[in-house]
């Protein structure tokens, strides 16, 4: 799965909104500059908040940098409206986060089991 940089997304959002600094971006989004800095450090973004400012912005461009920055016309998808697509993206991002946390817990559990097996094997040998 391709991973996208929050730095790139935030920089593209600043470009699209004609903003110069992270402070300006934070003010526009209604969050502190520290929140923007945390998003950059953790490579996470409050997607629902960001998308709420993207009615005229091509979401594909915002996330990947591909395509045109501005939507050429109100995007009409014969299958799903853009708002529903954005909701799906947000839900998928949440699901990815949940699955990543679950994977981390599974790895910890596997490490604990491996340690127990090593301890048991050492006790039998000794």
Automatic annotation (TrEMBL):
GO biological process: negative regulation of DNA-templated transcription
Listed Pfam families: Phage_CI_repr (PF07022)
Molecular function GO labels: DNA binding
Domain Bacteriophage CI repressor N-terminal residues, every copy: 8-69
Keyword tags: Coiled coil
Top-level taxon: Bacteria
Record keyword Coiled coil present: yes
Coiled-coil intervals, chain numbering: 89-116
Descriptive protein name: Bacteriophage CI repressor N-terminal domain-containing protein
Organism: Duncaniella muris
Taxonomy of the source species: Bacteria, Pseudomonadati, Bacteroidota, Bacteroidia, Bacteroidales
